[in-house]
Amino acid sequence: MSARRERPSRAGWQLLARAVKDQRNWVVLGVTAGLFWTGAKVAVPTLAQLAIDRGIISRDHGALLEWSLAILGVGIVSAVCTGLRRFYAFGISYRAETDLRDRLFAHLQRLHFAFHDHAQTGQLMARAATDLLQVQSFLTLIPITIGNALTVSAVVVILFVTNPGLAALALAALPLINVVAKRFASNIHPVSLELQQQLAEVAGTVEETVVGVRVVKGFGAEAIQGGKLRTRVDRVFERAVLLGRMRASFMPLLDFLPALGLVAVLWYGGHQVLSGHLSVGELVAFMTYILMLIAPLRMLGTIIAMAQRAVASATRIDEVLATHPAIVDRADGQTLPPGHGELRFEEVSFAYLPPEGGQLSDAGMPVLDRLDLHVRPGEAVALVGATGSGKSTVARLVPRFYEVLGGRITIDGADVQDLRLRELRRAVGIVFEDTFLFSDTIRNNISFADPDAPQETVEWAARRAGLHDFVADLPDGYETVVGEQGFALSGGQRQRVALARAILADPRILILDDATSSVDPTKEHEIRAALAAVMKGRTTIVIAHRPATVALADRVVLLDRGRIVAEGTHTELLATSERYRRLLAQSAREEAGSTTPQQDSEALVR
């Protein structure tokens, strides 16, 4: 096995070991139950031997009853311990699964935006569902596997103590089973890893199709998505069949080799009975012990296969858990100082790093190039510019979704890198261009940042966002469920809910990232009135391309390739900046399909 393959495999085993270690109390209980179960199981053949030799052969009815009752007693012990062993086995697996799921979910929330930019949602969902299920299924087998191992060990010891020669003949095939099992495990691991990856690809295709079902249906692309899914399902089928073929070639050997030992014992032991060197009871007990080996050895193939799939799944889970958040609180994290939201960009440079992360030298084209920007407390500044000029990047750097590569950003004099993340992000409210609402009630969406907010506060935020009258007319009012991602509402209604959500958080700085882009231009005035009310007296950054929305700001900053090329009021820039006029004219054409200079001029006036 290559070193490259060993490292991921080792990481998977280490994750499983940690999961078991965390449940060590349950493991001890399960193993203890397994010990009593093993003791009861291996006692039965010896008790049967005594019943035969001292009861049946000697025609002693009392001895026969005595040993029969003894077998009944150990049978009861075995049954009770079987139940306990399985109960503790499920306790171990479900507790470990719950802990791992909690760790994975919490870690995914801690990971930085750059990770989620490149990670496929379906892949992450597969790790949290399919892969965790494989781990849970394997952990269920731990007490059972330990019990089987104890049974095999006890049987081997008893056989050699009873009759070393016969035991050696009966167990001669065990070393061969060990060699074949190791080879089977090494061959099945890469196939198991690939199968789990292919299952994740299927989950990703399903997730993308369900989330984008409106696009799929809109383009009549159901057959295309169905073809993609069939291709990936076929790959899963191929890997699963190969896995089944490997198990099918290994399992018969586990049945055949113990059967050979049984035949050898019957032939050689039978001759010893006939010659008087072995009693009938001893031969029956010996053969019963050999039969007891078949079930654990047969289960060995299942255990190896499940172990390899669990290791493959644990490796995939570990890949996420081993990813370190790039943006975390500093050890000496500070609290946000008092202030009214003064915001400064000082010589800020930024470029998006490749998916693997990297240093400044690994960055792509610069998005911001030594940007200097000062937003005074309570001032509203509109950022405008062509696509790729860095407007949205500015919005994402303020709450430290990404780390600047040069310069610094301050809020009321404090560097955002020195502030505690939770406090920083509670002080910066963002209404994104792509409004996301949870499949929950309107009330819970508005009070997302403060679930315990009183109803009066929720309604106050809704009124500020121009939403209250609409909600009040709904049959269920604020308890109306908005549906998946809020698609039960119109674009403008979703934007108002998102705006009310930001208002309720009462941020020191409000960022409106193209918050009117999804609103019909004929309805924009309704959102614009709400925006004007919210922005009043609050430090606000408005990212927009519609002139009417830009005009709400006290100052307009024109960005080009990450630099400020012009600034002033909307009216001033219309009068002095040809580049600004061209930009707004282009936006107007894209919005309304305007193609003539006269229409462009009319759009600017509007």
Can you tell me about this structure?
Helix 2 runs antiparallel to helix 10. The chain has two domains: 3-321, ABC transporter type 1, transmembrane domain (ABC transporter transmembrane region fold); 343-605, 3-Layer(aba) Sandwich (Rossmann fold). The model is unreliable at 1-7, 357-363 and 594-606 (pLDDT under 50). It has helices at residues 3-22, 24-56, 61-110, 113-118, 121-162, 164-170, 174-211, 213-218, 222-274, 280-321, 391-397, 421-427, 442-446, 455-464, 468-472, 491-504, 524-535, 547-550, 570-576, 578-592, 597-605; strands at 343-350, 368-375, 380-385, 406-411, 414-415, 428-431, 509-513, 539-543, 555-560, 563-568. Strands 6-7-8-3-9-10 form a six-stranded mixed sheet, sandwiched between helices. Strands 2-1-4-5 form a four-stranded antiparallel sheet, covered by helices on one side. Strand 9 and strand 10 (563-568) form a beta hairpin. It is of the alpha/beta class and 606 residues long.
